[in-house]
Amino acid sequence: MAGSKQPIDLLLAKGKKHLTKNEIEKRKSQEVKAPDDKVEAPSYLPENLKKEFNRIAEELINIKIMSNLDVEALARFIIAEYQYQKVVKKAIKMSPDNDKYFDMLLMQEKLFKMARQAAGDLGLTISSRCKLVVPTQGNDKPKNKFQKFM
User: Which InterPro entries does this one have (predicted)?
Assistant: First the structure.
């Protein structure tokens, strides 16, 4: 089975495709690049969550993996993470003998899964970032095979 289509810059950086200049230009013109000029925290987020949204959004824009299309996804992550933290604080204070302790743990587990999934989708985890990072092309190879010994 064929793998998913990779960006042309990634293919060129890997050095595994031998494409003509025309093929490269054609592929580049067909790739979708979403702008990141209107990344703002949604109005429904409270002020403290807007600050967190802006902090994370700035980091994601700096590593060039966030666009305008990701605003709602990041907002959902921020909300899930905030709710998760609130539930954890309550669960820590609660005794395991409490009747609602098990319900609190179930809620904690659901919120954790939601936050983890959203974090993975946005590149906020180490493993998801490793999949998203495009290697840079460098001239690390010596000109001939004996030059590395000099």
Answer: Phage_term_ssu_P27 (IPR006448)
